[in-house]
Amino acid sequence: MPAIIRISNLTKKFGTLAAVDHLDLEIEEGEILGLLGPNGAGKTTTILMIATVIRPTEGTALVGEYDIRKHPNNVRGLLGIAFQEPKMLWVSTPWDIVNWHAKVCELPTDERRRRVKEVMDALDMWDYRRKNVHALSGGMRKRVEIAKVLVQRPKIAIVDEPTSQIDIVGKHKIWNMLLELRDEGSTIILATNELYEADILSDRVGIMHRGKLLVCDTPKKLKDSILGGDIIDVQFEKDAPLKVVEELKGFKEVVDVMQVKPTNLRLYLNKVEEVVPKIMNMFVKKDVSITSIRMSEPSLDDVFAHYTGLTIEEAQKGEGEP
Amino acid sequence: MRAIWFISQIALFGLIASRMINVPGGTLTTDTINLAPFQEHTFQVNTPAHLSGMTINLSSFQGLGEIYVYSPNGTLVKSDDFNSSANLYSFSYDFANPDLGIWTVRLVANASADEFKLYAYKAGDYFRYYVAGLSIMTLYSAAIFIGFDIYEEAEHGVFEYLLSLPVSRRQLVLGRSIGGGLRSFIYVGPLIGVSLYVLGAVNPLSFLVSLFALFLFSFGVSGMSITIAVMIKSSDRFDILMGVLDALIVRLSTAMYPLAIVQAANPLYGGVASFNPVTFAADLFRWGTGIEAIISLDNPLLPLLGIIAFFAFFTFVGVVIYDRRIEGGGWQ
Amino acid sequence: MKAVLHILEHDFRNFFRYKWWLVGLISMNLADLFIMAIVYNYMVSSAVTKSYKSYFEFFAPGLAVTGLFASAFMIGREINMERRREVHHYMLSLPMTRLELAIGRVLSGGLRGMLYMSPLLLTCFIFLGFPDILELLSILAVLFLLAIGISGLSIAIAVSTSSLEKFITARGLVYYTLFFCSSVFYPLSLIQQLGQDGKFPTMLVTLAEINPLSGASDMIRSFLLGYPPFSLTSIINVLFFSAIFTFGAAFAYIEIIERK
């Protein structure tokens, strides 16, 4: 698909601190792009620049055919954004907020009413629609924030940590609704520091750290890029024969074999899903009895650590969004 | 913000308004006199010659008439004719240097006046009168604030935390009332200092008595605010009630005008003002700072007892409510 | 234009959500008129009564202006709060131009002031007599200009101050100076007299004379009470004030609100 957003040399500096540092990125139409990184990585700042809420120090971005610097009004016509922190006055009610947002986005009256009811029902907010935001929990306020974008169904949706403070059932509902939004043709930029969320939703994941984009690819390719990232633990009935160990090392996908115990081998390899059948065939041919086999893939945290030398938790210590 | 309000009230409103407002320096007659048509009434000016004016208010009067004021040497100094179909006619005369002696007011009309009161004023005193009242208004609004703090604490769960502590409910409510009052006193202290500078030298003993009364007043107001806050448990309703109370309680008191004037304006207003703790506090403060006794009060004991009763009532009610009814949760 | 209407809807709805503040303000205004002004009737000197029958009559037009002032000024507080909580990011992300957003905010502040003031103005007419149609239109036009000017002034203060403390200080200084240094509570002639006697700074006397609150209050008095004489200069003051602060605020809002 063609790129709907082209970011070129985008930079934002606060004093001497480069919150976003010469970012180059293209986002394809109809994809969900996950922006993953710890707090202070520059995700929210990037989003705010694309949404023309703050001005870049250098560089620009094309959203559709519009430059964020030259045609910000047109850019905003294509976007809908759900902020990281719910942006609402506490005297308002969820109904007021979501309904008004739909009016501003020029939804026809009947369509607006239908969508507002539908989305608020889906997010279990209908019964709370007339309560002051002041009286709602953090999770409910977050639902109000995401509801605005789900009602609007913009061409490009930007969602910043859409399920933070929300319970697990709510998270799944919102994830499903975001996937539906994508399937209807919207492009979604998902900023998050929740690894599982980025993994299951994103078509591609861009990893950011200290204002820079380190890498951007599909989750599978990112995981596969870690040499020996997949792990298989094999438990043998008897001590593992030496010949079997040598044979295992012979597979080109296997990076290393470690004997944890005489009856337990750990294999570090790539493309585990392709290699496991070959290994099983070999065990059968050699008449080797195994009692169990356990497989695991690297997580996006492992990917992050691979590219930065730190886990996300370690990177988050002492960072903060500018 | 409160300091800015206070200073602007003194420097602007107080200063300018005192030019147009006369407070009674003393009533030359307080009798209700029925004036028959064509009747003359005389009054004696015996007070020192610093009077600045007088006002004659005729109530329950209808129709055409004329009024004349003659100085002690018989000179006509002012006259006016009126056509009044309202229930109030007000005639003012400003003295330059009033002669001591018998002054005459002559009413010429074809109907009678039910009420005829004469006040002698000392111009410029309104400024000092108002500054004293302003100090009390500021103290009141600072002391009431503790109630808003309760809602802030409830929002963050701190209120429930305080209830969980090994402190009796009685100690909790007393501590908060006294703390709230003390806090407001400290906050308003510099502003009261400014007032004292404006008001001038004081009798130390009476000042200490009035200061003690102000302490009790601020504790009582804090106690009232806390009690209402925990009874209502709804921040919206509390805000509304406090707004209305603030508007009424200050205006139906002697913070801005003497009780005699309030009573003359409307007996109902005067009735409410007579039992208003802001009235007690304002009058005691004026007495303590030596503003003319004749316009504040002769006997400080009554308002002092009033403030003690106010403090005791809300402390007692507060203790009872805290002991028997208070519990966490349920905040709206 | 549609975007401006959306902003008006947003701000008007929020205005009525502040029930507690509205009730407090209404109580204060009514108490000022029906308690304070009535009691002051018995205390005012001939400085007032030689030109006005009573203080109540003098004060009633001023009360309508103070109500308009207080309610139009409130938009600044909301905008400052939005800025501190970064709610303004949401407003900036909406599909409308910055100018539409700014004009919408200034207009809504002013119209809210007009709405709140209208029952007070009606009360004034009930007690003082109704103006003729031309006078009524003039009163409404001038008050509308005053309202948007005040709204603009309030917004300009709100976006120019970064912290809550600075905002409260700046707001208080401007608010109370304009409020008390005007002919709302006392005749302008009294302030001028104080200036001539050397008891009031000349700068403040001049401020009271050019204060748009004075102009608006005295205009209503001139129509309803016949005094003071109608002054075109004071209306022009209101016009200038409104023009400066309406457009100034709009541009300040656009420029400053995008800064981070």
Characterise the protein shown here.
The complex is a heterotrimer of chains A (322), B (332) and C (260). By secondary structure, chain A is α/β, with parallel strands linked by helices. Chain A has twelve helices and 14 strands. Chain A folds into two domains: 221 residues, Rossmann fold; 71 residues, Alpha-Beta Plaits (2-Layer Sandwich). Chain B is α+β, with helices and mostly antiparallel strands. In chain B, helix 2 packs antiparallel against helix 5 and helix 5 packs across helix 6. The radius of gyration of chain B is 24 Å and the shape is elongated. The two termini of chain B are 28 Å apart. About 2% of the residues of chain B have low confidence. Classes of the chains: A alpha/beta (322), B alpha+beta (332), C mainly alpha (260).
Helix count of chain C equals 12
Whole-number mean pLDDT of chain C: 88
Number of domains of chain A: 2
CATH architecture of the largest domain in chain A, by name, is: 3-Layer(aba) Sandwich
Q: In order across it, which strands form the biggest sheet of chain A?
A: 6-7-8-3-9-10
* Global geometry of chain C: globular
Could you give the distance between the termini of chain C?
A: 28 Å
Secondary-structure-based class of chain C equals mainly alpha
**How many strands appear in the DSSP assignment of chain C?**
0
Put simply, the count of helices of chain A is 12
Computed over alpha carbons, the radius of gyration of chain A is: 24 Å
- Which structural class do you get from the secondary structure elements of chain A? alpha/beta
SSE succession of chain A: EEEHEEHEHHHEHEHEEHEHEEHEHH
Strand content of chain C: under 5%
In terms of per-residue confidence, which ranges of chain C show pLDDT below 50 for 5 or more consecutive residues? none
Helix and strand sequence of chain C: HHHHHHHHHHHH
Count of DSSP strands of chain A: 14
How is the topology of this model organized?
The complex is a heterotrimer of chains A (322), B (332) and C (260).
Chain A: E1 3-14, E2 17-28, E3 32-36, H1 43-50, E4 58-63, E5 66-67, H2 72-78, E6 79-82, H3 94-104, H4 109-122, H5 138-152, E7 156-160, H6 168-183, E8 187-192, H7 195-201, E9 204-209, E10 212-217, H8 219-224, E11 230-236, H9 242-250, E12 254-261, E13 264-269, H10 272-285, E14 290-296, H11 300-308, H12 312-316
Helix pairs in contact in A: 3-4, 3-5, 4-5
Chain B: H1 2-20, E1 24-29, E2 40-45, E3 53-59, E4 63-70, E5 76-84, E6 88-94, E7 101-109, E8 115-121, H2 125-143, H3 146-156, H4 158-163, H5 169-199, H6 204-232, H7 235-251, H8 259-265, H9 267-274, H10 277-289, H11 301-324
Antiparallel strand pairs in B: 1-8, 2-7, 3-6, 3-8, 4-5, 4-7
Helix pairs in contact in B: 1-2, 2-5, 2-6, 2-10, 3-6, 5-6, 5-11, 6-7, 6-10, 6-11, 8-9, 10-11
Chain C: H1 2-17, H2 19-41, H3 46-49, H4 55-84, H5 88-93, H6 98-128, H7 133-160, H8 164-180, H9 188-196, H10 202-210, H11 212-224, H12 232-257
Helix pairs in contact in C: 1-6, 2-4, 4-6, 4-7, 4-8, 4-11, 6-7, 6-12, 7-11, 7-12, 9-10, 11-12
